[in-house]
C-alpha cells in the first residue's frame, strides 16, 4: 500500500520588534522593521511572496506585537490563506502558542529573511523530512565564495563554520520542552559559545576542541530533549543573508536588483 502524500506545511513568520532602538529604522519613518522598504517593497512582503509561491507551503500566519498594523499593508491584501496574530513575550513563547496540535510540522521563518526563495524552501524541507527539529544553515566557504563582504555570526565546529539561515521546521507539540529551554537563553542568540554552553559542558568542550561536526552537535543537543534534530546545509549563499544591519540592506538590494 502506498503511503499518503503529505499535505502542505503551514508556515509561521516571526515579524515582531525586539526591545530597544533598531538602527535600520532610524530616520525611516517606519514604525516596525517588517514594514521597512527594501528593494521597493516592505521586507515582510518579500517573505510572504516567497512562501506563497512555494507549492509545499499552505496556510501562513504572521506573528507580531501589533499584527493589525501589518495586516493593513496593501501589498498583502490579496494574499490567500494569510493570517495575522499578536505575539507573546519573546520568540519561544510566541512560537509555543502558535504551534499546531499534535505532531503536525510547521515551517518557521522571519520577516527580515528578504532573500528567501521557493527553491530555498524546497531544498530545506526536503532535507528536514523526518526530523522533529531542523535548522537551515550555510557553511562559511559557501557564503564567502560569493559574498566575501558579508559579515555573519559563525558557529565553529569540526569541518566547518556555520551561520543560521532563518528557516526552521518544528514538529508540533513535541518541541515544547525545547522552546521552553530556548526561552531562557534566547537573549544570547548572537553569542555562539553561550548558546552551545547552555546545552551542557560536554557539548561546549566538543565545540571548543572541534570534536564533532555541527550536524553531530545538533543531533546531541536534540537527544537531550528526546528529539531528532538536524542541520540542513543550504547550497545557496543568499540563504543566510538577512537584514540585520544597514550594510546587509545595501547588499540585499544589490542582489534583488540583479534578480530583477
From TrEMBL:
Signal peptide: none annotated. Coiled coil: none annotated. It comes from the Bacteria. GO terms for molecular function: nucleotidyltransferase activity. Residues 30-141 form the MobA-like NTP transferase domain. Keywords: Magnesium. Pfam families: NTP_transf_3. The keyword Metal-binding does not apply. This is Molybdopterin-guanine dinucleotide biosynthesis protein A. It comes from Sphingopyxis terrae subsp. ummariensis.
Amino acid at each position: 500500500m502506498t503511503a499518503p502524500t503529505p499535505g502542505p506545511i503551514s508556515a509561521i513568520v516571526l515579524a515582531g520588534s525586539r526591545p530597544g532602538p533598531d538602527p535600520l529604522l532610524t530616520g525611516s519613518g517606519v514604525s516596525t522593521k517588517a514594514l521597512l522598504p527594501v528593494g521597493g517593497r516592505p521586507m515582510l512582503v518579500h517573505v510572504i511572496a516567497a512562501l506563497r509561491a512555494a507549492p509545499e507551503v499552505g496556510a501562513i500566519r504572521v506573528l507580531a506585537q501589533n499584527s493589525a498594523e501589518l495586516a493593513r499593508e496593501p501589498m498583502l491584501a490579496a494574499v490567500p490563506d494569510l493570517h495575522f496574530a499578536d505575539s507573546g513575550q519573546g520568540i519561544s513563547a510566541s512560537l509555543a502558542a502558535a504551534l499546531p496540535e499534535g505532531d503536525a510540522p510547521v515551517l518557521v521563518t522571519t520577516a527580515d529573511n528578504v532573500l528567501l526563495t521557493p527553491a530555498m524552501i524546497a531544498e530545506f524541507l526536503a532535507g528536514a523530512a523526518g526530523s522533529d527539529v531542523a535548522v537551515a544553515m550555510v557553511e562559511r566557504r559557501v557564503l564567502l565564495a560569493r559574498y566575501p563582504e558579508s559579515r555573519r555570526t559563525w558557529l565553529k565546529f569540526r569541518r566547518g563554520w556555520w551561520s543560521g539561515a532563518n528557516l526552521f521546521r518544528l514538529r508540533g507539540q513535541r518541541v515544547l520542552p525545547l522552546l521552553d529551554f530556548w526561552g531562557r537563553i534566547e537573549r544570547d542568540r548572537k553569542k555562539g559559545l553561550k548558546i552551545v554552553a547552555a546545552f551542557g559542558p560536554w557539548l561546549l568542550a566538543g565545540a571548543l576542541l572541534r570534536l564533532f561536526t555541527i550536524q553531530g552537535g545538533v543531533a546531541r543537543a536534540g537527544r537531550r530533549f528526546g528529539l531528532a534534530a538536524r542541520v540542513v546545509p543550504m547550497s545557496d549563499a543568499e540563504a543566510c543573508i538577512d537584514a540585520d544591519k544597514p550594510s546587509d540592506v545595501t547588499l540585499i538590494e544589490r542582489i534583488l536588483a540583479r534578480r530583477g
